[in-house]
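User: Show me sequence and structure for the first protein, then do the same for the second.

Assistant: Starting with the first protein.
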Amino acid sequence: MGLGRDDLGVVDDGVVAGARLTDLVSLGVLASSVPRDVVDEVIAATGRQAKRSDGKLPPHVMVYFVMAMALFADEDYEEVAARLTDTLASWGCWDDGWSLPTSGGITQARQRLGAEPLRELFARVAVPVADELTRGAFLGPWRLMAIDGFEWDAPDTDDNGVEFGYGGSGQSRSAFPKVRVVSVSECGSHAMVDAEIGGVVGKGSGEQALARRLYGRLEPGWLLIADRNFYTWQDWCTAADTGADLLWRAKANARLPVVESLGDGSDRSVLLDPKIQGSKRQTLIDAAARGEEVPLDQARVVRVVEYTVPDRSGNGKDELIRLITTITDPTAAPAAALAEAYHQRWEHETANNQIKTTLRGPGRVLRSKSPGMVRQEIYGYLLTHYALAALICRAATEADIDPDRVKFTRTVRLVRRRITDPAAFSP
């Protein structure tokens, strides 16, 4: 049975080997990317096993329930549970005498589960899903990845306000506490593969501070794309030392001395520890210009690509864009290819919008009234979005189309429509 592009939500005909998208998008979609055995392992590792064998809402059921909350942001707890009943019963999650739990019972079960199993589960299952045949996923040997942040509104409770803080101040203070998420995503598939959650005020609350927790988990073979707000000397070194390659936009006032002009229009330059000044700084620049190795704790040789986008509308028209990259060989990645790759970072914005607008709904406030449950809920959104992005990427790769051409909104509607059907396979 083929998968027509109408099922995918693209404009013309095509076939994918396997099953129709509508045969795949059920609760089983979540279990295919978040398998039951991994759920059980995580629950055991975090010490959240059920204390009673006859409980209505065992921990593994609550994991899928939290993910389903992201699919049905408009529904209350009891309605979400009702939508899952047939599928979960087919998985043997309870006997024939099971009855729908109350909203209070679901709240207690969420609290017993906590946030840590969802965090650990996301860390284990969220990996890049594009392969060499996925359109738009690679630049040569490098897998295109991006880092960026976004914010959520949480319920205005005392605990959430203290934990996360409010945007603005005085009369312009935000109505709701703000939760900041910084994540790393795969550009080709839009799948988020790592994330950190924090507030918007106080020490460690900024995008740079949250990103700092992510850099050490980058992987060789990735080309991490970042906007100009992320660069600091130490963060660049930490990220580069993982073996990942970097393509970051530099700030307009960045000091980037040219040590060699290259044939593709780019330049080799050197980044220096800002603590180093005067003659020692010039000595390091001169050494880099001679092609000598420089001490990595003091300087890093990079390549600089500068260009403008003349057809951009608005205030950014003809703005100078300066990129710095660890890829110093222009034959491996010419300047034009790097400039094109940099704009793939907007795929991360697409992923953010898929979560905040399509799944959660525009302007919607999270459900959870306590910080731990806020974190649990956000990881539920991240896991659900990951499962949907993985499905779309696999289907698009089979159809030899760019995953960007698959309508995420339509896929979510199909999942919601079929979520009451028993899955075609067990988790």
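Switching to the second protein now.
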Amino acid sequence: MRGLEPADPRQVGGYRLLARIGSGGMGTVYFGRSAGGRPVAVKVLHPSFVADPAFRSRFRREVTAARTVGGGFSAPLLDADPDADVPWLVTEFLPAVSLRDAGVLPVEAVWPLAAGIAEALVSVHRAGIAHLDLKPANVLLTADGPRVIDFGIARAMDASTVTHAGVFAGSPGFMSPEQVAGRDAGPASDIFSLGSTLVYAVTGAEPYGDGTPYAKMYRIQHHPPLLEGVTDERLRVLIANLMVPDPAARPTAAQLTGYLASLQANPSSAWLPAPLLAEIQRRAIEAENPPAEIAATAPKNVSRRALLYGGIGAVAAAGVAAIPVVLGLRSALAPKPSPSKKPLTQPYVTRTPSTPATTDLEFTFTGKVTLTSITITINGRATTEKNRKLPWRKVIQVPQGKHGTYAVHYSYTAGELAYRVLIGGIQIATGSAGSTNGDTLDFQGDFDG
């Protein structure tokens, strides 16, 4: 957590805001308390999106999905007002460490992890929703079991697909083959992503290796996952069954929970290694004494960099799309786990953030139209430009070697256009659009700097 900044609201709805948790592509998440003193996480839509009907509609869908999903292994939505002047939603605050930042887990912890995620997916799928962005960053480890968060991409199963050629909804490295190919993706896609997530939990590495998003997506379509690091044979067999290319051949979430229940793989108060449980307890204590507000004259360069470009997820905030969270002891700029990383044996230690090297994140638009408005949001920081004739190019510096998210919302005049996104000169996304009357569209994705 970090203290509130001078421009931050102090109250939203009936909830008192006490500290910042993080900021993502669509909104800022605050730690707060209800009128009765209950600790909560409050997500507020970024001011730059408030007047945008497309983003309001996406926020409304996010709220609907979060309200629909129940169960003990997902984050409960407590309150929301998607039609407010500044839309907001409130979820239960849970001290936690994200799976992405937890280090390699021992096999005995991965079984209850799998059982908890599978049970969460049963609730999600039973509600008629597919999550479509299950990954380590969207799994929080709490003392009483894992929680699945972030329904920013989730869709109703009877809706049209959210992935199509050139526009990727999901996280490269954890997407299913059908998502990568732009085909209709549903509950079976979540099962594949669960397999990928379990590989990461037990090895500290993604199942299709490192590299650019496009390289990962190519491997997902054409190569089997890398399971050599999964040394437990029974777990390796389970993951292989979850990650078969044919969606129809994968087990359902309900079938998976039945199998895991037969192994008595239920989460308990001691399901995590002691250092992780100690860190979770430390965060619970921190929530009892949030950091003080930041004075208007206080320097912000280091803390803002840490806030925007990394962190440890520690709030069960359903529908928070790729929101980096910094809660104190672990540097937001700490490196990602690698295959050689050893299981966690020591508590987290304080590290001083350093200025990272940067690389170019480039957005290029071509065609014979005018961009009447374009907003590019990188890890929660939005920039808007007006009336840009094509061709048009925008280059933004991002930290090298760090994971991040981008979102692009644009309006254009009648005609056709094409766009592409590059990171370090390597293309990671491309697409096109056309309309006789002009249109307003958006796309988003992940990148590794």
